[in-house]
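Bit of a strange request maybe. I'm writing a small parser for structure token strings and I need a real example to test against, not something I typed by hand. Could someone generate the tokens for this chain?
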Amino acid sequence: MLITTTPTIEGRKILEYKGIVTGETIIGANFWKDIKASIRDIVGGRSGSYERVLIEARETSMNEMAQRAMAMGANAIIGVDIDYETVGEKGSMLMVSTSGTAVVLV
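Reply from user aminoacidic:
Good idea to test on real output. This should exercise your parser:
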């Protein structure tokens, strides 16, 4: 499955538009990750544990979107948008939503 943020694929023709597809993931960060991130805020540096959570959530959302596109008979998704939001009490959960247009390319 070809997935791109662009509205077209150079050298490929869109034969059919199947419709909008989405993927959503809500994932929680745990207490220990919060503590490690707080320490990183004080001493500086990147938070590897939060970065891994972001990567996992994005990949899960993208895979869900791709599965929905395949079920529609598409072989690509164009115009993909990825959004990140915090949800839940005190923003303790991360939501990643992806959307795009499922198409058939030739």
